[in-house]
Each structure stands twice: as C-alpha cells, then as structure tokens.
Write a structure and sequence with these properties.
Length: 293
C-alpha cells in the first residue's frame, strides 16, 4: 500500500505535479483538485470500496482520488474530459494496471454500451469529485441510464448536498430532493471547507453517498407524469399546487382536474407543492393518470 505522504492528494505532491506540467486550470471544466488526506479518507470510508468492487470515476483530474480508490478496488475506470490531463494520469497511475483512463465527455457516453464493451455486469460504485456546474445532470443521468448501480459517493457543492437530503417543509426541499430520494437513500458523510482544494472553490463542499434503492419507495403508474408534476410544483413554489401545475407549459392539466385529484387523495386544494411528500406526489400522479389527465 502506498504511504500516505506519497499519495498524489498530499498537498506537496499535487503542487509538484501542477508545476511539472505547468498546468493551467480551466473554469469551463470546473477543476478543483482535492489536497486533504483526511477528506480523502472520508470519501473512501463513505464509498465502502472492497476488493471485488468496480468503481467509476468522473473527472479524475490528476488522479488523486483515482489512486486512493485503486488501492482498495478490483477495477477503476476514470473518465476525463480534459485531454491535457491524460498524459498526467497515465504517468501518475502507471503502477496500477487495473485502472482504465478514458478521454471522453461523460455526458455524451452511452453508459449501457460503454459498460457492455468492457464486460461489466456487476453493480458499479461511482466515486468522484464532481464538477459543480454539472453535478445534477450527471447524478440524474446515472440513475436514469438503467445501468447496474450500487451507490454514488461524490463531492458536491454543500448547498446541493443539503437539497438532496432535504425533507418536506424545509427551504432546501425541492425537485432535486424528490428525484434523488426516488432512486436512492442520501447520506451526507462530511462537510468540506474551501481550503481543502487547489484552487479554492467559491463555496463550501460536502461528500454525499447515494445508496441505490433495491425497491422504489413509491409505485408511480406513469413516472414521467410524476416528475413533470414535481418539476411544475417547484417551478413556482410560492403558488398553490393547483396554480403551479395548471400554469405549467409542459403540462395541460386543468385546475378542476387537479382539484378533483387532490380531493380523491385527501389533500387540500390550497396546499403548496413544497408541503407534499414523495408518496403524496405519487398518489396525485396516479389519480391524474387514472382520469386520463
């Protein structure tokens, strides 16, 4: 096992790599490299990586987290969009023959085909320090892709982590909370200050683990309708649910139908969307689906 002070994530080693390659950070890629070994340990503990696990990393940077994962995992696939970092990764991780480095835009990958090409059928553990500007599309894309997935353990903006874990009635509760909790159980493993990165991000960060649910928490007859209702409800969250949903350009449901459906499931027509649980949104979606709205 690599001595901790020899890990890429040790501050002096990260600085040495950056200087060696005269690396210039690009804002368009949201690059902030972790330089705190204690935080690295917290990510690994939260991810619970074992010797049989296949891990997928999005945005490995110079390989700080990749190297630490490779010490514990059976196989690591690291997808990096910045072609300038490929030779850096290849040199830094040359000692690990069970790491595959892929130069690609993760958002453009056909994930099922990508995994099939590599003969991967077991549930993946996704572990990453995500670019903050594209966190939500990556996480939802993973859940919606249909790939075998055990868990997602990622560094994200602190505010986003709180939103993923929030419940009804709180200011952080919203469409992201419900979408994530439909697919997974969220757990915030650590809060991470700005000085743990080079360069320092403008906001605090958090490590969150999303454990994929074996069974969905609600049965929605039409999941697309469920998520459209949720999106509409929080698009104008200060309005009543009836007004926000009936005013949504993506839905064509009259106020009368929404009011009737709410009455069927025992919910006041004056309620706001931010007060509804996932179960209540599912009940409303199912009531509307049965009426053909």
């Amino acid at each position: 096992m690599t001595d901790k002070q020899n890990l890429i994530a040790a501050p002096q080693n990260t600085i040495a790599v950056l200087q060696k390659y005269d690396f210039q950070f690009k804002k368009q890629f949201g690059q902030n490299f972790l330089v705190d070994l204690h935080v690295l340990d917290k990510i690994l503990r939260a991810a619970e990586i074992g010797p049989e696990d296949v891990c997928l990393e999005i945005g490995p940077g110079i390989g700080s987290l990749t190297q630490a994962m490779a010490e514990a995992a059976h196989r690591v696939i690291a997808v990096e969009i910045d072609k300038r970092l490929i030779p850096v990764l290849q040199e830094n991780l040359a000692a690990y023959d069970h790491i595959e480095i892929v130069n690609a835009d993760f958002m453009e990958l056909d994930l099922p085909a990508f995994l099939q090409e590599r003969g991967i059928t077991q549930p993946l553990k996704v572990v990453a320090n995500l670019p903050y500007y594209i966190t939500t599309p990556i996480i939802m894309g993973l859940f919606e892709s249909g790939i075998p997935l055990s868990s997602i353990t990622v560094m994200v903006q602190e505010e986003v982590a709180r939103r993923m874990q929030a419940g009804p009635g709180s200011k952080d509760y919203g469409a992201l909370s419900l979408a994530v909790q439909y697919y997974a159980e969220p757990y915030i493993a650590a809060y991470v200050p700005r000085n743990c990165f080079i360069p320092r991000p403008g906001v605090g960060s958090a490590v969150i683990r999303l454990t994929r649910r074996a069974v969905l928490p609600v049965q929605a007859e039409n999941p697309k309708l469920l998520f459209a209702l949720i999106k509409a409800a929080f698009g104008q969250r200060r309005k009543t649910l009836v007004n926000s949903v009936s005013g949504s350009p993506e839905l064509t449901i009259p106020k009368e139908a929404i009011t009737e459906a709410l009455q069927q499931i025992g919910i006041s027509e004056k309620i706001r969307g931010e007060a509804l649980t996932l179960e209540e949104f599912a009940a409303l979606a199912n009531a509307l689906e049965r009426t053909g709205e």
